[in-house]
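User: Structure with GLP, tokens only please.
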Amino acid sequence: MRIIRTRDYKQMSRDAANIISAQVILKPNSVLGLATGSSPIGAYEQLIRWYQKGDLNFSRVRTVNLDEYVGLGFDNHESYKRFMYDNLFSQINIDPANINIPNGCTSDPEEECRRYDGVLRTLGGIDLQLLGLGVNGHIGFNEPADIFAKGTHVVHLSESTIEANKRFFAKAEDVPRSAVTMGIFDIIQADRVLMVASGAGKAQAVKDAFFGPITPRVPASILQFHKDFTLVADEEALSLV
Ligand code: GLP
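Assistant:
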């Protein structure tokens, strides 16, 4: 485990974007595992700027997103599909055929999980997985549980996650109660994992995940085992360690 300590969110975003861009330069057809939430937005903005300057080319990059709310589709501004287009995909030269996001608007979420696991298999593995960190230590939407979930599955969101994510919705009741997420096994099979964490609100989760025992009660703690895991975090997020 490698920890890169940054002054603030801006520097965290720049460092993370540097790592992602190095991946794309070294392997132009990389499979990038991508994340939503406020943490990666700054890194996406930086990647867009470098693309606009002509320094980056995403034409052969393939992407897989971690998760999606059940019931939300592209026409809903809070869907993760919409988030990804608004914050990254619509502003770079990625081929839409190379974009993969779980479909939240399906009548059969279990079948969608099987389809998505097939997509992951077909891609042949993730080169670099970007992650945020939930306040309860979740990654993707893998909530604290008794076991580490393996593949893509349907989750019922915890009260703390609904509370944390309600800021994106008009009211807490609008936050979907379930989601489709890649599993822990899918995530840790990535060749490299990069997490961004910022702000005092993440300090306890960072401490529990990376300076405490490895346990499914803190899903991100499994990353302590990963052979190439980098945490880029600002001073506030590292304030308890
Ligand atoms: C959501 C996403 C996670 C993300 C987390 C933290 O629950 N499913 O992938 O890491 O939020 O979000 P933020 O970065 O906004 O704190």
